[in-house]
């Protein structure tokens, strides 16, 4: 059955599989201490314009959020996130499992507001009992957000300023980073992110890899013995070169962005048709995810022919559904979907 | 300086100190395995009408919340609490330190609403992705709440029903339980609480003891090897008989309730004067805490002569202050405060 | 350079890569809820002769040990392991990170002794202070062990009896299970393991897969909401079908055992030559790992031409080195190594 | 029945109870932010000759070990202790509950050997795989040890040097510190300990207080927001002045040392008689604990008349028993015991 359910339903971009087949019999040292990983790291540092960055490869998104947040957040502090943030809602308590509270701010189309963050911190430190409370520590944002929306350069800059004011690291979850970097109208580049955050990651799983997330500590600021911390979280891959090989391929000649652009274009085509045909877009998103508020009937009928993502009930008669494109979305699949709409 | 800042500023009711002095040279076995503890447990079981209850003594409130919640909540679940709940706001992340998320419901005068809890659970299990989320586990309420308000018997019964529906233990934080049991107009007794909850505690620290909280697993349902779990939390007192001795005194002839009634009466006298003189009570509370929304000027002036509790800024020109009475509040202190108002 | 450093230096058995390439564009549901995973689970249940077994797929060994031990061990208990056990020495504290102590027994060629385990438990419960100590909970063994040695059927049966006596789950780490099952002289089958343990895993990473470990709860005894627990550990792979596909291939027609037998045979050839030429085998092992106690000079000279595993210093002039074979070891590589010895 | 079971069977030195009674109605600010705590801290700083020390008060020993070790040990590291150390054996896994492994060295009469610690660290860092292992972090010693023995000044100095060499904080558990400081023949003073360790604590529970341990960060090196960390462990006492009051009394005019000397003297009298009468002292200890290896029969007979501490079975016919004195041991009790021996 046709599926637009998510961006991780298929395997890897063919270029990755080819390279994997070619390297399959090579004897690599373990745990990422190989030349392919070194090459991938060098390419990423260059793409980021961050020659001092420390780059590490992990397997999945929740694992990466858990490992990084635990490593950079003091024991007396929590992580500040949008109430809709992945770390707050969809990670089965992985952050709390490491002993840290998720402190929430109201989201605005999935984003947190720098002024509200500032006010939150000011109120916290003005409270005479603040030492009995969880300190605002790491600030977590995702770009694109859970709703496919994007921060502007002004917003990221303002968040950076608040983080500096209160001594908080800024951590950007880029599980779908490629789709954000190639979205029409965005003014945020990879270099901006490397300049404005303390740590972020470049998502592979949802952008054309089999799996893998590249964590970038932007200014040589990896936590001490980070390899040991990764291992302690059960997150160190024995055949680490598998991760290096995928990112080395994705960052060789712009493949990462090409993949993302392809998916964004497919989503744009679908979005145009939805608008023409009078569908209600739940929010205006420029990336590879489309959210539609549908009559329950319409949703049910459509899903006889195509798998869509279920987001939430809007009310008793309406549902928010998600259409998601990826590296593997073909023109034919898009045509087929459009015919169904 | 005169103080109505909190209900734990003074030592213990004199009856406790006398008994402590008398027992001081007795050689007790360690860690609560003594006869005084046994006697106190028997008295508490009787007061609760719960002959099968398991009773344990811990030192403080946060410690008790942390130890109990960690012991009764599965790893895949969190604890549901009011957003204003002590475990959510004022325990420095002690719950998350044990790996559990605090899941919040909006408070209504400090309380959670049974219907909202029911809806929360229904929505949770209706979500196709619920296995990726933190399950609602233990339900946490406090009685009196952070705001000195009380659940009705109907409300507690309704909470019990929702807990049964979704297989969740109901845990009642009774750090100030005495003040609730003796509040004018309440229809909730100690026996009701022992019947309707799975586990609760009888607060000593804030009700006339030097320290100590008596945890009651209401129907022989203490977690396996609970003593070991207490020790693992660093919460096992070597001279455990100190805890037994205090509760044995408090539950000998109704002293616990007498202490609470005394403090409630003092608060009622103050509350009447406040109403007469046109002060704005932030909310209507029947226990030993009074919350007043004051002009910042008035608050500042008062605090030159009496220590009050600061709760929060109401707006730019108003502050919520707390007046709190205890076992040690004297008629003279009340008169003095009234003269200042 | 030639390498006999470990059994995870190369990619996957070609049959796996071929199948991956064929399935790459298929749209699978996420997180292991796909048909390939179902097929792999069915094959594993059948191979185990355990129709009621719950099978789950994780990515790596440390992750699997951490997730399983945390899930099956009560908070008041630890995991009992050989002092040389992987969980005790080489997992960067991943077990303790979940709050559990590793309780150690002396190893005998990497194994624990059932009689010593029995005595340990008897002594524990005979101690009047045992409630102040960490209870022996889960019993952890690996098969093959860190030293490539194997339990006999009698030993496993005896361990099972001790576990039953003290109510402890028996967990077998099978990161290299294939090599054990196909070792000459072993009397332990996969069905024995499924019958005698509560939970074990079938290692993929070190036995011909790119990555992946198949956890088998042998009698329908998976912990409640185990998927959520996996996610909470950051261990849930988005493209879970990648794991299912690899195990479905490995358990289709006996490939898993063929791979292991191939590596064992290569190791046997090398071992024979070592013996002929007077090398000192550190211990007698029948699987794919060979441990040699070498003059430091000899070790240094060899390593100019071939990468070996360093195990430990034996004394000031001798070193224990490891030779390790795998699915990818060729006859030519073995010849080349033999020429160097 | 007569008891020499432990040093925490009775209440507090009468001077403490008197002062408590006198202060009982005073209104103190909460959580240790009061003047009595300040006074006690000043006295302790002066006794330590450490004007920059940060002093904190906690309730019990396991709690203190847990809170301090968790605060000063990095996530990638464990705490090194004697295999007989309290943190390794008798704290129900409280250290591991915070995510840290206890790394053990063999004990020598309860002590660790500086040269062995050095070798342990050297071997650790010489291992090519050390990043996959738990780093030696905090070094934990107790003084007196579990067996009542004492470090010499040379030994403590040597431990300090090893700690400096490998960047490890040195933490001294002084649950029975008084008995060590006043032992005949010791060359270690409180000032030495304050100079040579990074953090240590002065035990109150076992040296004449109702409860309480005074943690001394010897050179202004308390972890950031340590009050919040204490609260997060559920270890912050509401009526913190109770702790300050006890230590202020103990450190007013040398009472702390007087109490300890009294108990040591009583133990010395008993020890002399034991030697005269041919009992086998398990080891030679100069403090308030006496360990005797007894015929099981003798042990059983004695215990009909006096409660002793059970330590361990020596062999099938012998048991190690403990005689323990304290502030409350009277001459009459000693005479009575001697009559029984």
From TrEMBL, chains A, B, C, D:
One GO MF term: transaminase activity
Listed InterPro entries: ArAA_b-elim_lyase/Thr_aldolase
Pfam families per record: Beta_elim_lyase (PF01212)
Reported cofactor(s): pyridoxal 5'-phosphate
Keywords: Aminotransferase, Pyridoxal phosphate, Transferase
Domain spans labelled Aromatic amino acid beta-eliminating lyase/threonine aldolase: 12-292
Name listed for the protein in its UniProt record: Aminotransferase class I/II-fold pyridoxal phosphate-dependent enzyme
Species the sequence originates in: Bifidobacterium phasiani
Biological classification of the source: Bacteria, Bacillati, Actinomycetota, Actinomycetes, Bifidobacteriales
């Amino acid at each position: 059955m046709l599926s637009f359910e998510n961006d991780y339903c298929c395997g890897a971009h063919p270029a990755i599989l080819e390279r994997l087949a070619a390297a399959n019999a090579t004897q690599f040292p373990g745990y990422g201490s190989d030349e392919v990983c070194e090459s991938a790291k060098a390419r990423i540092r260059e793409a980021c314009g961050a020659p001092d960055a420390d780059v590490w490869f992990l397997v999945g998104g929740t694992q990466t959020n858990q490992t990084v947040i635990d490593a950079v957040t003091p024991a007396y502090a929590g992580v500040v996130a949008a109430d809709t943030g992945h770390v707050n809602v969809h990670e089965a308590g992985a952050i709390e499992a490491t002993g840290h509270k998720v402190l929430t701010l109201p989201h605005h189309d999935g984003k947190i507001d720098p002024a509200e963050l500032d006010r939150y911190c000011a109120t916290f430190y003005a409270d005479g009992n603040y030492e009995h409370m969880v300190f605002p520590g790491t600030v977590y944002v995702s770009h694109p957000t859970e709703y496919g929306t994007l921060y502007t350069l002004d917003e990221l800059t303002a968040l950076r300023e608040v983080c500096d004011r209160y001594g908080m690291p800024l951590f950007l979850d880029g599980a779908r980073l490629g789709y954000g970097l190639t979205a029409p109208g965005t003014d945020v580049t990879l270099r901006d992110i490397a300049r404005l955050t303390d740590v972020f990651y470049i998502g592979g799983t949802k952008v054309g890899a089999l799996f893998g997330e590249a964590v970038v500590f932007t200014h040589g600021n990896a936590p001490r013995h980070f390899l040991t911390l990764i291992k302690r979280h059960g997150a160190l891959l024995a055949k680490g070169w598998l991760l290096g090989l995928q990112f080395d391929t994705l960052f060789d000649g712009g493949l990462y962005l090409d993949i993302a652009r392809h998916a964004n274009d497919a989503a744009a085509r679908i979005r145009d048709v939805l608008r023409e045909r009078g569908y209600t877009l739940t929010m205006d998103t420029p990336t590879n995810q489309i959210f539609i508020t549908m009559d329950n009937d319409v949703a049910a009928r459509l899903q006889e022919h195509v798998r869509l993502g279920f987001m939430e009930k809007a009310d008793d008669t309406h549902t928010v559904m998600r259409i998601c494109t990826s590296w593997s979305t073909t023109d034919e699949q898009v045509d087929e979907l459009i015919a169904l709409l």
